[in-house]
Amino acid sequence: xxxxxxxxxxxxxGKTTLVYHFTYMLAELGHKCLAVDLDPQANLSxxxxxDEEMERIYGQDVDRETLISGIKPLDRGIGDIARVKVHNISxxxxxxxxxxDLSLFEDKLSANWSKCVDGDEAAFRIVSSxxxxxxxxxxxxxxxxxxxxxxxxxxALNRATLIAADYVIVPMAADLFSMQGLRNLGRRLNxxxxxxxxxxxxxxxxxxxxxxxxxLPLGYVVMQHGIKESRPVQSYLRWxxxxxxxxxxFVLGGINGLEIKVENDFNCLAxxxxxHSLIPMAMEVRKPIFLLKxxxxxxxxHYQAVLRAYADFKxxxxxxxxxxxx
Length: 326
Fold this sequence. Notes:
The chain is an alpha/beta fold. The protein contains 13 helices and ten strands. The protein has one domain: P-loop containing nucleotide triphosphate hydrolases (Rossmann fold), CATH 3.40.50.300. The strands form two sheets. It has an eight-stranded mixed sheet, sandwiched between helices. Strands 8-9 form a two-stranded antiparallel sheet. The mean pLDDT is 92.
């Protein structure tokens, strides 16, 4: 089972939409996958679940069928992790739903990250809680892939989630702030990997399953670029062509000053269009854009855009699978 996280501390780049579509394409290609919503805003959950199901789940003050149920015994100091309800989205897709109350666990995660330095077993149980929940539920669901969505920040919740992942993919926008976000992300990932490696060496509970925290970067996806004669327009390309060098230096630890165009960069997994006209239609019928049908309103030019979207996401997904399974 592979755990793939999509992360960027720069918000507004279409990360959750990418996770949603990637998960659906994995299922479309016959892979059983578990979507994990560890963003307290629970936007991924709202994309997968109907309004009625959302109201049923989140209308409860206690015993909500979200990831909160998995950490409640730990949070109260009365036990270890518990089972979490897997919501069946389709035969190949399960969902561990997010919850706003996940943000309330941040302080405990932060405090126990420090305590791990002393070899505190209880601290390791808390910091590794999400990793172990994901592992347990993925095994029971028989998932081949876990696709993890997190919020755009460097908080303790994201740190505990990132060390649980096998691979990280960075969704990017081609702009100034995304460049800065990419530099910050690379620096922070390397710090967290080193800190977790040191902490794991101090773990005294040999029976406690801990993630290795390798967090291998698979590449980046440039989102929402403009199109002109099938090529990115100049305003986007100016920033997009700076991404290869920044990604190579700050995320991969390679040499700086790499001169290569984004379209030729091995680390660029895809340049994805915005598909403006399809988004409202897909939201209305709660489908990924590449599964829209004429009955959903996708006719004429819209249906041709659906076919192009299917080809684009299929190519992206196959590329990710190839790299994750080397």
